[in-house]
Design a protein that fits this description.
With about 375 residues, the chain is of the alpha+beta class. It folds into two domains: about 230 residues, Rossmann fold, CATH 3.40.50.300; about 120 residues, Beta Barrel (OB fold (Dihydrolipoamide Acetyltransferase, E2P)), CATH 2.40.50.100. About 20% of the residues lie in helices and about 35% in strands. The strands form four sheets. A six-stranded mixed beta sheet has the order 7-8-9-3-10-11, sandwiched between helices. The longest helix is centred in the middle third of the chain and has 17 residues. The C terminus is likely disordered.
Length: about 375
């Protein structure tokens, strides 16, 4: 399935003019607050009627202002996951899930409730009411309710924004399973670089109502010219495989032809993952460093150097693990004599690879 969006709308201070096509999987709308992300989602849902535009899901038109076609929200067959879950407090979890199935047309294929309940790990919650659930549990039930409505598309508007870090860590693996095991496309709103790196099949970066970059997470997140990112969000996204868990608490990863170490993660040996390495956590050396505590030292060569408006620069280094980005000062670039094609070494602190930057199973699109 695919999603095609073309919207124009007047917003306070900006003009929304967004056009993009999203493949199957998770398409992340990424940008700062006020960029137009939620407006796009609400227009797709039918909660807002834009000034002009057209949206279709797998060739099925939800609205087309030129043709004066407008399907009301309840006929669009969409699942919407809000920040707060928005479960019915007087119904049990089982009844909330059944409410989603009640809206599913009998003529369309339906998800197996038992499969959805197992996938989301909510079987033990079925007889409880929302007031007795944690924030993470509520969101898992909300995901299940949306999925059991047999939607053509799932909309998720910053579904983790209201959760603390522990609850976010609890929920992210379920969105990964949803992406990998369910054929329903997902339009996902966030301003978190970690969520983008872990979840996105495709990224649509927005600034002031305009699409400034679209593509795979590995490409968009590595581009410091994409204004919504900010230099602190720039980083490499690598495909890796768990190769070993060591007795000293470290996990060894295989990345292309290289090895990386990070604090132990709860993934099985042989499992494919992708990890985000923030550019600010990488330092460069012109010679192989000695006497360092860092375990991750990758030999490579400089690909590009992009100087910022301030004292910093983003250096792209091609290594056996893939392309690594380093955020260093322009003074350091000059001191090391860095230039395109020059050999260098990328040094990554083991503890700099945070758990929230490690995600499961998705392989990059070609």
């Amino acid at each position: 399935m695919s999603l095609s969006v073309n919207l124009q709308h007047d917003l306070p201070g900006i003009q929304l003019d967004a056009k993009f096509d999203a493949p199957a999987g998770v398409t992340v709308l990424y940008g700062r607050s006020g960029a137009g992300k939620t407006t796009i989602v609400n227009a797709v849902a039918g909660l807002l009627e834009p000034k002009a535009g057209r949206v279709s899901v797998d060739g099925w038109t939800l609205f087309d202002t030129e043709k004066r076609l407008w399907l009301p929200p309840h006929k669009r067959r969409l699942g919407y996951i809000f920040q707060e879950g928005r479960l019915f407090p007087h119904l049990t979890v089982r009844q909330n899930l059944s409410y989603g199935r009640w809206f599913a047309p009998k003529s369309v294929p339906r998800e197996d409730p038992d499969k959805v309940i197992e996938m989301l790990g909510i079987g033990h919650l079925l007889d409880r009411r929302p007031l007795s659930l944690s924030g993470g549990e509520k969101q898992r039930v909300a995901i299940g309710r949306a999925l059991l409505a047999s939607p053509r598309l799932i909309l998720a508007d910053e579904p983790l924004a209201a959760l603390d870090d522990a609850r976010k860590a609890e929920i992210l693996p379920y969105f990964e399973r949803l992406r990998d095991e369910i054929s329903v496309p997902i339009l996902y709103v966030t301003h978190s670089a970690a969520e983008v790196a872990r979840l996105a099949t495709s990224v649509v970066a927005l600034q002031d109502g305009k699409v400034v970059r679209q593509g795979p997470a590995s490409e968009v997140m590595a581009d410091p010219s994409v204004a919504p990112l900010g230099v602190r969000a720039v980083g490499a996204v690598l495909q890796v495989q768990v190769s070993a868990h060591h007795a000293d608490g470290l996990t060894e990863l295989t990345a292309e032809e290289a090895r990386l170490f990070l604090p132990r993660i709860p993934h099985k040996v042989g499992e494919s993952l992708r990890i985000r390495i923030p550019a600010q956590e990488v330092i460069l050396a012109s010679k192989r460093p000695e006497g360092l505590s860092a375990l991750n030292v990758l030999e490579g060569r400089v690909d590009t150097i992009r100087a910022g408006e301030g004292p910093g620069a983003i250096v792209s280094v091609i290594t056996p693990a893939g392309t690594i980005l380093a955020r260093i000062t322009r003074r350091s670039v000059e001191a090391l004599g860095l230039a395109a094609g020059k050999p260098c070494f990328a040094v990554i602190k083991t503890v700099a690879l945070a758990p929230q930057d490690v995600g499961g199973r998705l392989h990059f699109e070609n």
